[in-house]
Amino acid sequence: MAVDVRRGSERLTGGSEGIVSRYAFSFGDHYDPRNIHFGPLIAVNEECLEPGAGFGEHRHRDTEIVTWVVEGELEHRDSAGRGGVVRPGMVQRMSAGGGVTHTERNVGASPVRFVQMWVQPDAFGGDPRYEQRVVDLGRGGLVTVLRLPHATLRAARPRGGEEVELPSAPFVYLHVVRGSLRLDGHELGPGDSARITDAAGERVFVPEGAEFLVWEMRKDLSFG
Fold it and tell me: How far is 192 from 206, CA to CA, in rounded Å?
């Protein structure tokens, strides 16, 4: 087992008018050949959009795009006629398939903050798909948010003073949304992440209330 901690303060920063984006991996104009992916995970972006701000119509293909809203209201519309408003406590998944265009916009009266994660799909091509649903984190431990053939996203919101066991998998990625936790001697705060290789059921201790996301991944990135 190896743990690679990345601090939120180290994230690459981008954005435009009314938008602040912070990237965990190479993204957009930022390219680092040593930081392209972890397993099949190719993007973990922290986004903050002011009221009315958003991303105009743009195209994706062969990517699973998963969005977790922290606060505010984010509207999604795509060229397949699907869409909706995502709020805290909900997850959104867009499977781009062979190609789809979409827009994302803050339709609320206050800033919207969200974490958007991109995962390489198990198979390329096909029809685009879209779903959004409510996720109940009231139990405290890890809750399954989304299950893909090769990767599972889980989330937790422990009450504090608890230990949470992480999945055992070749690749486990942990992202702290809010609060703090302790992993393998490391103190992690909001925006911090840990890339765990050959995870074997490590535990995180949550001294106070926190919210974090965990990807359990069982294959590496495929290049063709």
Answer: 14
Answer whether 68's CB lies under 8 Å from 137's CB: no
Taking only the tens place, the pLDDT of each residue in 37-53 is: 999 999 999 999 999 99
The answer to whether residues 139 and 96 touch, using CB atoms and an 8 Å cutoff, is: no
Taking only the tens place, the pLDDT of each residue in 72-97 is: 999 999 888 888 899 999 999 999 88
Domains in the chain: ranges and CATH: 10-134 (2.60.120.10), 143-217 (2.60.120.10)
Instruction: Report yes or no: 83 and 131 within 8 Å, Cβ to Cβ.
Output: no
Q: Compute the distance between CA of residue 138 and CA of residue 11 in angstroms, rounded to an integer.
A: 30
**How much is the pTM?**
0.95
Amino acid, single-letter form, for residue 198: D
Question: Do 121 and 41 contact (CB within 8 A), yes or no?
Answer: no
How far CA 182 is from CA of 33, 142, 177, 208, 213, in Å, comes to 29, 16, 14, 10, 14
Contact 86, 132 (CB under 8 A): yes
Helix, strand, or coil (residue 58): strand
